Amino acid sequence: MTFEVFESPLVESATIQKMNSNGTIFYGYATEGDDAEPRLLIFQEGGTTLLKDFFCMSVEAVSGDGSSIIFYGENFERFFWTEEEEPISLKEKIGLEAEIDISSATLNEDGSVIVGTISQTKWEAGSYWTTINGFRWTVTHGLELFADHTKITAVSADGATVAGNFYPIAGSITSHAFRWSEAGGMERIPAFPVVEDAAEDHFESNWATDISPDGLVVYGTSRKGTATFWGTNVVFSWSKAAGLSQLDEVTNYTPSTLAEAGAAGGVVHTSSAVIDAQTGKTGIWEVIAAAGGTGEVRGLEILHISRDGSVLIGNGQLYVDNEPKEWVSWIIRDYPVPVVQPAIEMVPLDDETMRLVWSPQPGVRHVLQVHNPDGSWTDLATHDASSTEIGPYTYEVAVEDAARYYRVVATKL
User: Fold this and answer.
1) Is 42 helix (H, G, I), strand (E, B) or coil?
2) 305/299 Cα distance (integer angstroms)
3) Residue 169, H or E segment
4) Total-model pTM
5) pLDDT value at position 35?
6) Phi and psi for 59 in degrees, rounded to 5?
7) What is the three-class DSSP state of 24?
8) How far is CA 289 from CA 248, 309, 311, in A?
9) Burial level of 309, CB count in 10 A (0-12/13-18/19+)?
10) 241: exposed, middle or buried (C-beta count within 10 Å: 0-12, 13-18, 19+)?
11) pLDDT < 50: residue spans in the chain
12) What region does 216 belong to: left with phi over 0, alpha with psi -120 to 50, or beta?
């Protein structure tokens, strides 16, 4: 594992904020002088560095393959850009009226699907409210809006499944996380139970922040126990196969202070810690120290994680001789990602067939096995996942065999 402060060969001041799914191309903004306007920066490891000739304040989202970008331009307006086209207003791209604002947006694997949240002022219950709606835009169907008081926060690689949150009333702090798919519609994700206490207002709430590339696993935060809005929250993962799992406890943080959980096989992250299935939670200070950092960068924040979990990027303030200097970006490579044994979901196809479904982990071999009456195991299928594997993996069995015990044995390639 290695740590380095990012330096651009083109300019003195550069910030990276996002990367493509396999952690080889980085995106951000840079300036060439004290009075220069910031421009879009694209840095390809071992290759070229590009500084685009248009204004870019910040990069919000990058498609998994790196072909499409959403960034903030002048007057905080969002723009959509690809190598083949000039930047276009995101509102114009998805067909929004000028008076409607976009609160957030992100992209699927190839940039053909855009999801996010819009906000607009409406008359409701005798007064004006700013109403939010999740949205999904596709080349085929155009703009599709979800119900009032919803936010869409993440999208699967193929764009067919999203994760988001529903707020029961306008302005509510209570949130219900959900997964929506073209095939299955809306599914509410259960929250952890909250203890009733007459002295406090307690609400069962959870917030979805990310989804795995195959759309099977949702990540987020949830209240738990005696949590209040400013109390204890936990980081969770949820799938139909494995149910609700607690990954980490986050004390005295509201969900909005958590960075998106990188749906990366055995690794997720908050803004200040890495969480994996083998070692649990590790603070970013400890991770950087293990990667060879010497404490010259402080005020650390994790911004993004590669799909396989091996590359992390973030920012912090550079110190020289214990004196604070400029803010810089940093990169961690070769994070030791643990191997995770995946849970298997069983999906009925018809009266005669069941489909076994599970998520791949990049760089890991999966062997599907069935248990025999004599106690032995029989291999049914083998999959070797590349660093950009999306999945899911599937295997069909007869209904009469569905009651048998199946497992996936995972080993590092």
Assistant:
1) strand
2) 18
3) none
4) 0.90
5) 62
6) -100, 125
7) coil
8) 21, 18, 15
9) buried
10) middle
11) 198-199, 259
12) alpha
What would the two tokens of residue 252 be? 């005295």
Q: Is residue 362 within a helix (H) or strand (E), and if so which, with residue range?
A: none
Write the CA distances from 272 to 160, 259, 282, integer angstroms.
31, 8, 9
Output the six-digit token pair for 22.
């396999």
Cα(337)–Cα(125) distance, integer angstroms: 51
Please answer whether residues 104 and 92 qualify as being in contact, where contact means their C-beta atoms are separated by less than 8 angstroms.
Answer: no
Both tokens of 375, joined, read 């106690």
How many angstroms separate the CA atoms of 241 and 305, rounded?
24
Q: Where are the beta strands (DSSP E) in 241-352?
A: 243-250, 267-269, 273-276, 280-283, 297-305, 312-320, 323-333, 345-348
Distance CA(203)–CA(136), nearest Å, equals: 29
Task: Collect contacts of 82-88 with beta carbons under 8 A, ≥24 apart.
Answer: 82/111, 87/54
In sequence order, the 6+-apart residues with CB closer than 8 A to the CB of 247 are 219, 234, 235, 236, 237, 268, 275
CA 110 to chain centre: 15
Say which residues have a Cβ less than 8 Å from residue 397's Cβ, sequence separation at least 6: 353, 354, 356, 404, 406
Q: Residue 411 corresponds to which tokens in the numbers above?
A: 């080993």
Instruction: Give the separation between CA 194 and CA 242, rounded to whole angstroms.
Output: 21
pLDDT by residue (tens digit) across 178-215? 999 998 899 999 988 776 654 455 567 888 988 989 99
Nearest Cα residue to 283 out of 295, 294, 270: 270
